[in-house]
Design brief:
It is built from 16 helices and twelve strands. The chain is of the alpha/beta class. The strands form three sheets. Strands 5-6-7-8-9-10-11-12 form an eight-stranded parallel beta barrel, surrounded by six helices. Strands 1-2 form a two-stranded antiparallel ribbon. The chain has a two-stranded antiparallel ribbon with strand order 3-4. Strand 6, helix 3 and strand 7 form a beta-alpha-beta unit. Helix 2 packs across helix 3 and helix 11 packs across helix 12. It is globular.
Length: about 450
């Protein structure tokens, strides 16, 4: 990440005045002075060049909202704990967070509603709403169905304008999907018109996968056919240079960021923790991070990294619990950009982590529900956690085998009910086209099940 012009450390003072300090390479003296002037506990903001929005570098991702205890849900199947969401949103706003990202596809279709209820209790000018036109299913590709989904977002969010609207999941399904969802039905032209009317203030897209589609959309921008105000990409210290190593369909974030940066298009970061994996790193890597910054969480390294480049508007975090929110507020209030030396250190950590055979699942839950009841993300999460913590053992002659075996099986049964474990995957492949990471999900589930069965047999 040190290769591009970063470190334009934008500090907006509490009175609302903007100070922009440019630098290249290592942190400059002027940047250090700006950070010294910014009070501890004061959120860092970035300026959106399209609209002049003063956006908090920490954005609230409303995809993993707290749920009611005991599996409770209402008559519609909504299990979101609205009171908990309200408390989190209130605390975030009170401490400077003003960007809230949702979608019609999140939380079984109830995220927009929960977000709207929580935010409508506050002045509309105090926050920015980002949502998406998530017409993934071919059944929603028609102009009528797509417009129905679009208009429903306004109702659910209790607003008459959307600050940041995204074409959702661009790249999934390639050019055919892009054309079917947004081009052939005239929806993109409609959204451009909505921006002109002011119902949409910023128009952008979230990118997942096929770089041909990404490059095509930027060509439209270059040719003056569509002006993109911002784009959302997956970016973290592994995906910066190693996205293709994890999934050959992915594109390294270094390329994505630099293409947007040179066009002056604002960048929103998703998956800064790579589905939580960068908050639960292997023990040896955790020790090295703690040695350098003993008072900081492991996750804060990833969040500082994601927030450092000057073109970043906001870094999304799906903060289910108050402790997640508090830790991220500490990281971004104010942000201390990673130095060149820390950047090199994180690249070394990325290389070490890629030696561990974890499943590259980001817990997006697009693969769910499984028609046979398998809790795919939770199965992968337990397996990855055990790898990261050194609790995988294949040799039953090892002195650690009995302990590791017991911990893995007990943890597996506690986190994943037996009827939802990997053994129930029949390999139907329903999940495959929905995975942005192109994971061969049935193959991975079968491998995990083989390992589980070997532990159960004690063989």
């Amino acid at each position: 990440m040190a290769k591009f012009d970063r470190r334009v450390f934008l500090k907006l003072a509490g009175a609302g005045s903007a100070v922009m300090l440019a630098g290249c390479g290592r942190t400059s003296d002027s940047e250090s002075e700006a950070r010294d002037q910014q009070k501890t506990g004061e959120m860092t903001y970035r300026m959106n060049g399209s609209t002049g929005d003063r956006v908090s570098v920490l954005g609230y991702g409303m995809m993993r909202l707290p749920t009611l205890e005991g599996g409770k849900e209402d008559a519609e199947g909504n299990n979101i704990d609205q009171e908990a969401v309200n408390r989190l949103v209130d605390h975030a706003l009170e401490h400077g967070v003003n960007y809230f990202d949702t979608s019609p596809a999140y939380c079984k279709g109830f995220s927009e509603r929960a977000t709207g209820i929580a935010l409508a209790r506050h002045p509309r000018e105090s926050y920015f709403i980002a949502t998406k036109l998530s017409n993934f299913s071919p059944a929603t590709w028609s102009r009528e169905k797509s417009l129905e989904m679009y208009e429903k977002s306004f109702k659910e969010l209790q607003t008459d304008y959307i600050d940041y609207l995204l074409l959702h999941g661009i790249g999934m399904g390639g050019m055919e999907s892009l054309n079917g969802r947004y081009i052939d039905n005239g929806i993109l032209d409609h959204l451009i018109g909505e921006r002109e009317k002011g119902r949409v203030r910023n128009l952008g897209f979230s990118y997942h996968g096929d770089v041909e589609v990404f490059d095509y959309l930027l060509r439209l921008h270059d040719e003056g056919k569509v002006k993109w105000d911002f784009a959302q990409i997956q970016m973290n210290y592994i995906d910066w240079k190693h996205a293709k190593q994890i999934n050959k369909r992915n594109t390294d974030a270094e390329y994505l960021y630099n293409e947007l940066d040179r066009r002056g298009i604002g960048v929103v970061v998703m998956e800064p923790l790579l589905g939580g994996r960068l908050a639960s790193v292997p023990n040896n890597i955790m020790a090295m991070m703690k040695q350098r910054r003993p008072d900081d969480s492991v996750a804060s390294w990833a969040f500082r990294y994601a927030g450092t480049p000057d073109r970043i508007l906001t870094v999304l975090s799906g903060m289910t619990y108050m402790e997640h929110l508090e830790d991220n507020l500490k990281t971004y209030s104010p942000l201390q950009p990673v130095t060149d030396e820390e950047d090199a250190f994180l690249e070394k950590m990325a290389t070490l982590m890629l030696e561990f055979p974890t499943v590259p699942c980001t817990d997006c839950k697009y693969c769910m529900p499984c028609p046979y009841g398998v809790d795919i993300p939770t199965v992968f999460a337990h397996y990855n956690q055990c790898i990261n913590e050194g609790r995988i053992e294949t040799d039953n002659r090892s002195p650690e085998y009995a302990k590791v075996r017991r911990e893995f099986l007990i943890g597996y049964d506690r986190s994943v009910p037996k009827l939802r474990q990997a053994s129930h995957c029949i390999g139907c492949g329903t999940c495959l086209p929905h995975c942005p990471q192109d994971i061969r999900i049935p193959d991975r589930l079968h491998k995990i099940d083989e390992y589980v069965e070997s532990l159960r047999r004690n063989s």
